[in-house]
Amino acid sequence: MDVLPLTDESYQKLFLRGYPTKLLIPVIVDTLTKDSDFNSQKQFLENTISLPLVKQYPLKIEYMQSLMKLIILEASQALVNWCITHKFRLQNKCILELGSGVGLAGLAVSSECEPQTFWFSDCHPSVLGMLLSNVKVNVDREIDSKLSDTLEKDNFFKVSSFGMPNGVEENILYQGRMKNTSVYVMNLPWEDIPNLNISQGISPDIVLAADVVYDSTILESLCSALCHLVHKNCIAVVACTVRNEDTTKEFLEMLEKLHVSVEMEETTKFLEFLNLDEMPVRVYKLSRFNSS
């Protein structure tokens, strides 16, 4: 099916008549990345914000602890750009994302970079609920889901059909297919990673994370998790919004003490996003000192 030229009027009419959204995505991306300044992007968003394309929830008190993860932040955008720029590294690989939040980065990577397996993970019930909703509406085929509608913290179900080792298997909440990629959603607190045998159960080739370096109180569990996951056959790519230089410095120093090598990556823009935040974003590649 051919896609019609995209104008404001034709775009609105296509949605009204139920035109397949997937066929519009390449045209939308092309439109936003060619001669598209801030005002034109802003107008585009304002004209479509009322459409039911994104699941919306009212802000509630219980979201306060997870608020950062329910917002699409610049670090996620930078991570997506890095992944698409280096998609040859991700093709047919097993990828684990820490702190997936609403799932923007993971959905983009699963769709555009063709990994063999993509693991979304988070730990806050409200965030997992939003994440699952977004993953479910984007998968081509649902394989298994063992999750209650309410998604309370103590109400996770063991999925016996995955064949994963104990500790990993019981944290898996959902499995589906997106194109040729197997996608999973799991409850994965960082502090549990060293005890869950993730490296053998999932055996990731690449670990991704965006905007996880925002509070010094979580750095110990984050760095311990990254240290456990990164080895000679697995690297990690972490995109950080630099809100506080001291926090970022502490993160890097902690990794060095754990014998994790850190390199700053270039942040080439493949996709253009509406950016309202002026804070710098850095992308770091993590590997072992002795990795070959």
TrEMBL record:
GO terms for cellular component: protein-containing complex. SUPFAM superfamilies: S-adenosyl-L-methionine-dependent methyltransferases (SSF53335). InterPro entries: Methyltransf_16, SAM-dependent_MTases_sf. Transmembrane segments: none annotated. Pfam families: Methyltransf_16. This is FAM86 N-terminal domain-containing protein.
